[in-house]
Amino acid sequence: MGRSAYLKIFLFLLPAILFTVIFFITPAVMTTIMGFTNMDYRFQWNFVGLYNYFKMLIDPLAPKIILTNFVYTFGTLLIFNVTFGLILAILTTSIREKNGIFFRTIWLLPRFTPPVVYGVIWLWILSPMKEGLLNSFLRYDYMPWISKFPWQVIIITNGIIGASMGMVIFASAIKSISKDYLWAARVDGATWLQEIGYIVLPMIRWPLAFITAYQTLSLLTSYEYILLITEGGPYFKSTVWSLYSYKVAFSSYAGTYEFGYGAALATILVIVGIIASIFYWRIFKFKEMMEEPKIEIV
Amino acid sequence: MEKGKGIWHRPTPGTDWFQLIFSYGGEISDSETGKLVVDKSATMKVLQYIKKLVDLGVTPGAMSQIAWRDIHTAWTKGEVGIFLTGGSWNWAEWQRDPYNVSEEDEWKNIGWFPIPAAVKGGKPVSVSHPIVHLITQVSPHKDLAFLIVTLASDIDLNTKHALGSGHLAIRESQLAFKPYAEAKYVKEITKVLEYTNFSPNHAKAPFYWETLFEAIAGVETGEVSPEDALNFWVDRMKSELGEQVIVK
């Protein structure tokens, strides 16, 4: 390739490179550096070495939060973002196209709803008093849903939104499968379940792998709905690492903002995210997905 | 009263919680050094009191999950017996949307009292949080800043604010100021000031009341015992404040 070819490639990649540098690399580097300071509401860069990381090691909340994070991330991912998303995609592509679009649109509504509105709706549904939607429906005078089932609450409330992304990606992947395979299978007497198991699933393995990897990373850092609905409670039971980092850094109203410790906590998430990316890259063999096909069918 | 509607309180952290520590004879700051104080014995009694309220069915275990608006609605409808952490400003708040209680009905149905002493020989308590105005040394307009602070502390403007919002006087001279002295509600509620204690103006005080409330809500939901909540809280205070906290 000549110099002009490289220049062209560079120019094509430039917008993506700029975005990555401005919105990922710069904040990640700044967060990492800030994690070595004891910066608080006075915004002073006082470097304290590994102090925040030692503090993290003896932080009594850390083991509890790691467990919750694990349950939340993989619970939401496996039950909703992948499995439920896949079920919705299969069902809505198995019916008439017009009806399928209608149901997919309904499932997209929670994603279009502003997070605060979505959170308030859930607070009303789960209110412990008899006026709460669930309690009035079940005729309970009092039932503290959030205290009793904190993990289930954060998994369901996040999963209902999370499932729609998998649904859209899987549905379009299913629709792109050549109908010839399905017709051929039907001629051979395959049942609907056999069509799904032997044709559809193997043919959408890349989107499945992509959604699993992408949504793991996304769930690892998401906390807004947890903050709005359970506030991490009761007694830290639904506090995930990213929420803890946010609370340490920002939420102390009247302001003892611990940006240094909060940044160190966030840095751990960046490291875990990078390790998870490498793990998925290897286990799902994403390199093969990126390779040019060995034969081209025209 | 229905079960769980005997005594309600704010569902969030706040300086109000210091009142319970005071009522059990505890303290939250050291007057000599200005350091914050963790009074283990008094806090333990507060946590046990909270547990008792839930065990007796007086307060719902999920009190911290009830929205502010639902609390005020239930209260203004007369469904709740005592609102433990009310503020003087609630009087004005309940007169407005969406509660719309007339002042006449408030006088007829609502009374108040300072938090009673919880130990023999103790005194009833309430809490105030006076704000300190600071003018920075590097300000290029110190005179102007001083003028603004003077206006913010002016009895005329503060009386307007007090009468409209149910807040108390901020200066002794304001008590004798005619519009304030003649207003029935503020005149009566000012009597509670006799029992008041101050919330400390310490940079880490918000950490204190936020983590204290985590312990209270944890015990209330039954997620943790008073003993474990106290020990955990003391550890957090020590690791966060280091030498800035005295543990008794």
Question: Which percent range describes the beta-strand content of chain A?
Answer: under 5%
Ends distance of chain A:
26 Å
Number of helices of chain B: 12
Across the major sheet of chain B, the strand order is 1-3
Residue share in helices of chain A?
over 70%
Flag low-confidence runs of chain B: none
Quickly give the structural class of chain A.
Answer: mainly alpha
The greatest interface between two protein chains, and residues involved on each side, is: A-B, 26 and 30 residues
CATH architecture of the largest domain in chain A: Orthogonal Bundle
CATH architecture of the largest domain in chain B, by name, is: 3-Layer(aba) Sandwich
In short:
The complex is a heterodimer of chains A (298) and B (248). Chain A is an all-alpha fold.
Describe this structure in words.
The complex is a heterodimer of chains A (298) and B (248). Chain A is an all-alpha fold. Chain A folds into two domains: 83 residues, no CATH class; 168 residues, MetI-like (MetI-like fold, Orthogonal Bundle). Chain A contains 15 helices and no strands. The longest helix of chain B has 16 residues. Chain B has twelve helices and six strands. Chain B is mainly α. Chain B has two domains: 171 residues, D-Maltodextrin-Binding Protein, domain 2 (3-Layer(aba) Sandwich); 52 residues, no CATH class. Chains A and B meet through loops of A and helix 11 and helix 12 of B.
Task: Outline the fold blueprint.
The complex is a heterodimer of chains A (298) and B (248).
Chain A: H1 3-34, H2 51-57, H3 62-94, H4 97-112, H5 115-126, H6 133-138, H7 145-148, H8 150-175, H9 179-187, H10 192-203, H11 205-221, H12 224-229, H13 241-251, H14 259-283, H15 286-290
Chain B: E1 7-8, H1 18-23, E2 36-38, H2 40-55, H3 68-76, E3 82-83, H4 90-95, H5 103-109, E4 126-128, H6 142-152, H7 155-165, H8 172-176, H9 178-181, H10 184-189, E5 196-198, H11 205-220, H12 226-241, E6 245-247
Parallel strand pairs in B: 1-3, 2-6, 4-5
Helix pairs in contact in B: 2-11, 2-12, 11-12
